[in-house]
Specification:
5-stranded mixed β-sheet; 5-stranded parallel β-sheet; Cobalt-precorrin-4 Transmethylase, domain 1
Length: 252
């Protein structure tokens, strides 16, 4: 009978190697095969067992190394011969990481699979920028939303009208390229042009940088600073805390 290994969907966190979970690090050190994404930081890749087969399956906007179906098939094939197969994903596998889709396909193929959560960038990047997502004086609710939607998904578009009125803090993943449209929709939904917004690029890494503005000013600021992805956006009154708390950024 052919041996089947186990696939571990591991969240690598946002970049700072100190935020990698102990369980994830232990599995990387004992892995036989590691299939990893594009934005995994070099210090985390350095944790991988030196004898492991390492495969870069990373996808970046406009440049696809492997299609999603090809990645799943690769994991299935590697599990036929390797005992510990790691699928290493940035942030958390179940927060805009397609981990649920991959896990579903692996289960359907009869492969043993386990998820190892990671710290998602939507929490970590604001924290390192001195922006608490909740604060008793500013916000008691948070919404996480993707700014980059797939074609043919279960609904045609994010309901920005509902999001604008349902949460005091909005965290947008992968929204830099669509930010003008997102801002227009939020303004149409009734948010003030003075609503604070922060863009955090390369969150938790040594090269982290922030751009702080309002829904009215941020687009001009982005152009002036040549600010590009990868970054997350935080929208809401909590952004005002950046001025007070940013000096206490954790060392990376």
């Amino acid at each position: 009978m052919q041996h089947l290994g186990k696939v571990y969907l591991i969240g690598a966190g946002p970049g700072d190697p100190g935020l990698m979970t102990l369980k994830g690090k232990t599995l990387l050190e004992s892995a036989d095969v590691v299939v990893y994404d594009a934005l995994i930081s070099p210090p985390i890749l350095a944790m991988i067992n030196a004898d492991a087969e390492q495969i870069n399956a990373g996808k970046r906007r406009g440049r696809h190394s492997l299609q999603q179906s090809e990645i799943t098939q690769l994991l299935i094939e590697k599990a036929q011969t390797a005992a510990v197969v790691v699928r290493l994903k940035g942030g958390d596998p179940f927060v805009f990481g397609r981990g649920g889709e991959e896990m579903e396909d692996l289960i359907a193929a009869g492969i043993s699979v386990e998820v190892v959560p990671g710290i998602t960038s939507g929490i970590a990047a604001p924290a390192y920028a001195g922006i608490p997502l909740t604060h008793r004086a500013h916000s008691s609710s948070v919404t996480f939303v993707t700014g980059h939607e797939s074609v043919g998904k279960y609904r045609p578009a994010v309901n920005w009208q509902a999001i604008a009125h349902s949460s005091e803090t909005i965290v947008v993943y992968m929204g830099i390229h669509n930010l003008p449209h997102i801002i227009d929709q939020l303004l149409l939904a009734g948010l003030s042009i003075e609503t604070p917004i922060a863009l955090v690029r390369w969150g938790t890494r040594p090269e982290q940088e922030e751009l702080i503005g309002t829904l009215q000013t941020i687009q001009a600021q982005m152009e002036a600073a040549k600010f590009e992805a990868p970054a997350i956006a935080v929208i809401g009154a909590v952004v005002q805390m950046h001025e007070v708390l940013a000096g206490c950024r954790p060392s990376v």
